[in-house]
Amino acid sequence: MRTRLRPDRQLVARMGVTMFLLGLLYVAFAAALIVLLKSLALIVVILGGMLVAQYWYSDKIALAALHGHLVTEDEAPELHAIVDRLCANANLPKPRVAIADLELPNAFATGRDARHAVVCVSTGLIRRLDGPELEGVIAHELAHVAHRDVVVITLASFLGVLAGLLMRTAIYSQLLGGRQRDQNMLVIMGAVAVVSTAVYAISFLLIRTLSRYRELAADHDAAVLTGRPSALASALVKVAETPARIPTKDLRAAQAFNAFFFSPVGTQWTLFSTHPTLQRRLDELEKVGAQLGEMTEAR
């Protein structure tokens, strides 16, 4: 199904390059593990099984981790009305709608494709934003679904998560093994730790680079879809200012999902950030506002 949102060729190209490079990295990672651990069947089963689970159950995993639950039209009529209106305007299939029981104001989209997507907003976000602002945030998440970058970032994150897990396992194995472990096994686990660290670092950089651009693309399309860039900009400012009042433990629990969130949680911007700076996003929205004004005048 073709949506009414503009195709973003730069985003498509970036996603293609990222997935190609991560695919090469994935194959090299699997080959290195096979050489080091000498167990082809075990590696294939573990890596393949985890990849399929990440792809097929990404929505359920994210909702469970962030205390989210699906809501019906009777339970959240205003939220469903916003999603219905935006999907009709964008010619998108309606995703499932969920609410996360979090004081942290944020939102995310997940799912393996547009027909199995979930758009989730937190209770903290609903309380803090007015109607147009909430509509802007939901339009931003629907733009992610339309661009299909949700599944790309989900699969891209898998390799980094797996590498990080193996890295910690290998390190702990060495620390706890001591002299009682066979020296050859310690060397192998040390090599696994080094390879996993390198894979984690490379996938980390690739994901961050893609993530920053996809956020700008979603901001642009959300502003065009709603026709209210100023409302989305206001939502960004409100969400960015709120974390200072959120308990530290809640911020730490949510930081692992920064790449999926509408706005990053509890971090200062660096070259490794998942999102552009707030000022960059506001500047881009201001440009969209000027463009929309020019289009209105031309009519």
TrEMBL record:
Enzyme nomenclature, EC number: 3.4.24.-
InterPro entries tied to this protein: HtpX_protease, Pept_M48_protease_HtpX, Peptidase_M48
Domain of life: Bacteria
Principal localisation: membrane
Subcellular location per the Swiss-Prot or TrEMBL entry: Cell membrane
GO biological process: proteolysis
GO cellular component terms, A-Z: plasma membrane
Transmembrane segments: 12-34, 40-57, 150-173, 185-207
Record's bilayer topology term: Multi-pass membrane protein
Cofactor details (free text): Binds 1 zinc ion per subunit.
Pfam families in alphabetical order: Peptidase_M48 (PF01435)
Peptidase M48 domain segment(s): 75-287
GO molecular function: metalloendopeptidase activity; zinc ion binding
Binding positions for Zn(2+) per the UniProt entry: H140, H144, E215
Active-site residues from the entry: E141
Cofactor: Zn(2+)
Keyword Glycosyltransferase: no
Keyword vocabulary terms for this entry: Cell membrane, Hydrolase, Membrane, Metal-binding, Metalloprotease, Protease, Transmembrane, Transmembrane helix, Zinc
Similarity-based family: Belongs to the peptidase M48B family.
Name of this chain's protein: Protease HtpX homolog
